[in-house]
Design goal:
Helix content is 22%, strand content 30%. It contains two helices and six strands; from the N terminus they run βββαβαββ. Helix 1 runs parallel beside helix 2. It is globular. The N and C termini lie close together (10 Å).
Length: 132
Amino acid sequence: MAELTRISAPDGVAPATAYTHVVMGTGRFVAVSGQLALDEDGKLVGEGDPAAQARQVFENLRRCLASAGATFDDVVKLTFFVTDMAFMPAVRAARDEHMSAGRLPAASAVQVAALVGPEFLMEIEAFALLPE
């Protein structure tokens, strides 16, 4: 795991509660493409169910990170794309199953008009940093 520094309350910025404003470190950069709620056979998991989709997306992220030798502890940034901000509690619950409150990455949440298909409620990408 790379040595990461987290700054949740930079001078003059309101403290972050569900993310960290700044995460920095040195090492090998890992970018994980946005993940959808697809199982290993490419079938949708959790049609119409944001909690089930969020759990599958985070499982896919975990597997992608592992393929690069990384874990959620190495993640420095998450970007959440949701078709409805009402899905964010489900996304945060799934995130919290994989990440400790004291090691949250920087994050952005964006509501989008559509994803690659109408059955998808969210897509989440991750950036991680590994030791050199």
